[in-house]
Design a protein that fits this description.
Largest sheet of chain A: none
Helix content of chain A: over 70%
Number of helices of chain A: 6
Strand content of chain A: under 5%
Oligomer: homodimer
Number of strands of chain A: 0
Order of helices and strands of chain A: HHHHHH
CATH architecture of the largest domain in chain A: Orthogonal Bundle
Number of domains of chain A: 2
Largest interface: A-B, 26 and 26 residues
CATH topology of the largest domain in chain A: Arc Repressor Mutant, subunit A
Structural class of chain A: mainly alpha
């Protein structure tokens, strides 16, 4: 559940600009400000079910953009590479093993090829 | 001119999936296969001017996606960070100056914050 919300937040950050104003209004409250369905329902004077349906529909729109473009996945892969490099650097700072620096180089060369 | 084509190639790679089949057909020849306008014109049995106009219109569509989403710019920034790290690693391999490893760490921490 938490991971699902994290993914929705990320997809909204990536593709939110492609949404309609109405979708954006609700998704901004839900994703960026972490409002509950009930709070969004009160604020917009619409039923909780309508909020739920809008979020579900918008999630499909965002997933569709990701299916088409796959840019969030590409971006996540880059982030993972940075995290791996950081881990190697931290290990190097403790052990001073030169082979770790070679491992860093290999990751980078793969990323920029 | 060369940089303009490089940018178009990159934007096509990023947002090409959002184009129509007809736009894709021409852009694939122009961007991925490096066909000239004349060659695309012959192959598709349309005028050189029509090919030119399609490419110009499609370029605007792609630039519009980039204006909205800015994902190519974000991606380029990541690539620049990888290139900078590689440069520091290469410098380290020559000088073995530990401060270069600290510089690598700073770049990564900025990227994954």
């Amino acid at each position: 559940m938490f991971e699902k919300k994290m993914r929705l937040d990320a997809l909204y950050l990536f593709y939110g600009k492609m949404l309609t104003d109405k979708q954006n209004e609700i998704m901004d409250l839900f994703c960026n400000l972490d409002y509950s369905l009930g709070e969004i329902s009160e604020l917009n004077n619409i039923s909780r079910q309508a909020v739920h349906d809008t979020i579900k529909r918008t999630e499909k729109v965002l997933e569709n953009y990701e299916n088409q473009l796959g840019l969030y996945e590409r971006f996540s892969d880059k982030q993972k590479a940075f995290e791996k490099i950081l881990q190697l650097i931290e290990e190097y700072e403790t052990t001073h093993s030169e082979s770790l620096i070679l491992d860093v180089r290999k990751i980078i060369e793969k990323e920029i090829e």
